[in-house]
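G., the chain you wanted modeled:
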Amino acid sequence: MSRSNGRRAALALAAFFALLAAGCSRDKVEIQSNTFWEGTINSYIRIYGSGNKTYEIHGKLGCVTVSKTYADTLYLRLRVTGKQMQETTRPLGTLIICK
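Predicted structure as tokens:
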């Protein structure tokens, strides 16, 4: 194998392992609620529902925003891997966690 091909193979192997390491990042977004909610993950993934829900995010996690959709006094909780759980009972309350 020529020196140029060996260097190319080493660079390709390094790039492969860099991509593999970047793709291994996993975070969980956990929502606990007894009301209806909606929000976003990384500003472009829309989420919505009611009750409890867990999302597994592969890759880089930026910010998660979740808001109650009704002006009630029920609870909405949000936790992201490595962060403390937040809670709101305010009517139309919003929670934001950035990693």
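The longest strand covers residues 26-33.

Shout if anything looks off.
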